[in-house]
Amino acid sequence: MSDNQTPRKSLGQHWLHDTVSLEAMCVAADVQSGDTVLEVGPGTGALTRVLLDKGASVVAVELDERLADQLKIEFASADFTLHMTSILAFDLTSLPTDYKLVANIPYYLTSKLLRILSDSTNPPKKAALLLQKEVAQRVTATAGSTSLLSIATQFYWHTSLGAEVPARLFTPPPKVDSQILILERRVTPLFSVDEDVFFRIVKAGFSARRKKLISSLAGGLRCDKAHTKQLLDEAGVDANKRAQMLSIDEWYSLYQTCIAANMDI
């Protein structure tokens, strides 16, 4: 490995060259010949080569200048376009409406990237993201172990898990195993709501995870506990539950109750 390909810890770089794992990512995103695929952080180009071999048109976003220069040279004659920038600054609307996303994501970037994809007016049709295993499982969690991240992601996406990828297959090996998170965009959001209000309620519920819902909501919404208890009762939600125990349907029921009560949220 040349000095230019040495992974940078500051950018969360861990190279994956395992063919089986790279193929699994492409299968998870259902990459077909003729697809436009956005790749985030192509690094040394291992995944890029697999995508191009499948006949995809690859649009890559790479922040590391030393890697970008090598990628431009290697794939100069391929159906490959490189943007040297952060994915957080990249214009997703520049892509065709049915593009797909396949990427080995630096762990520190996960939450911000999921937020950007969810908020975009041109999100990918389908995505396969290789994430820290624990985070991938948090995103797909159901009632009993949900989080703000899982509720916010599942509102916009059908989520599922793909293959696990052991840490030993990366260079350098991270401290934890990874897993493929599969996202398929909902045609419309899960519920018809004022999204700002809906997520303010959810954020209030998760503002004090160790407290019972009646306490965290009362504090987060600046509402007295008696009124909060009434709202929860009307929504059919147990006030003694903690936020992670609620299903996304229960959050929607609570939202409807708050709207009906004309709460200033």
Labels describing this entry:
single chain, 265 residues, alpha/beta, Rossmann fold, Helicase, Ruva Protein, domain 3, seven-stranded mixed β-sheet, two-stranded antiparallel sheet, 10 helices, 9 strands, 37% helix
| Spatial strand sequence of the major β-sheet | 4-3-2-5-6-9-7
CATH superfamily of the largest domain: Vaccinia Virus protein VP39
Can you tell me the CATH class of the largest domain?
A: Alpha Beta
Q: Let me know the number of strands.
A: 9
How many individual helices?
A: 10
Average the pLDDT over all residues and give the rounded result.
Answer: 93
Cα-based radius of gyration, to the nearest Å: 21 Å
CATH topology of the largest domain: Rossmann fold
Estimate the strand proportion.
Answer: 15-25%
Largest sheet: 7 strands, mixed
Instruction: Estimate the global geometry from the Cα principal axes.
Output: elongated
Which stretches are poorly predicted, pLDDT < 50 over at least 5 residues? none
Structural description of this entry:
The protein has helices spanning 19-28, 46-53, 65-74, 110-119, 133-139, 148-156, 195-205, 213-221, 225-235, 248-260, and strands spanning 15-16, 36-40, 57-61, 80-83, 100-104, 126-132, 157-165, 170-171, 178-185. It is an alpha/beta fold and 265 residues long. α9 packs across α10 (248-260). The longest helix is centred in the C-terminal third of the chain and has 13 residues, at 248-260. The chain is elongated. The model has no long low-confidence stretch (mean pLDDT 93).
